[in-house]
Design brief:
Elements (H helix, E strand, L loop, with lengths): L2 H25 L10 H23 L7 H13 L2 H13 L3 H26 L1
């Protein structure tokens, strides 16, 4: 394992986790209990768009400093986006008697994230 890359991932991950936590904390008062999980939805869609943009800029075009991919893409966005929370929220909606909302959330989140990433990728190229 490359020590510099590992430090870049860890530093980016710490910042991404703090950004995700801050987003949830700031919007906690406006989130409806048992309703659409907007915070996680937004984090995953925005994170997917940012990942697509960074992929074009860092991986395809190049010229970024060493460790930028590890810091930004793997660390920061890896921690900011959250599949585990998405899964748990989907399950909670289902268990709380909202199976249609759970199903809609389970389908809409990846479709929106992949769709927005594809649009961003195409626009950046």
């Amino acid at each position: 394992m490359n020590f510099t890359a590992a430090v870049a991932v860890a530093a980016g991950g710490a910042l991404g986790a703090l950004a995700r936590y801050s987003l949830a904390h700031i919007t906690a008062r406006s989130a409806a209990q048992g309703g659409w999980p907007w915070v996680t939805f937004a984090a995953n869609v925005v994170g997917s768009m940012a990942m697509a943009a960074l992929f074009v800029l860092i991986v395809e075009r190049g010229g970024w400093p060493q460790g930028a991919r590890e810091f930004l893409m793997i660390g920061l966005l890896g921690a900011f986006t959250t599949y585990s929370t998405f899964s748990l929220e989907t399950l909670a909606l289902w268990q709380n008697g909202q199976p249609l909302l759970a199903l809609l959330y389970a389908v809409a989140t990846p479709l929106a994230a992949i769709g927005c990433a594809a649009i961003t990728y195409a626009a950046m190229r």
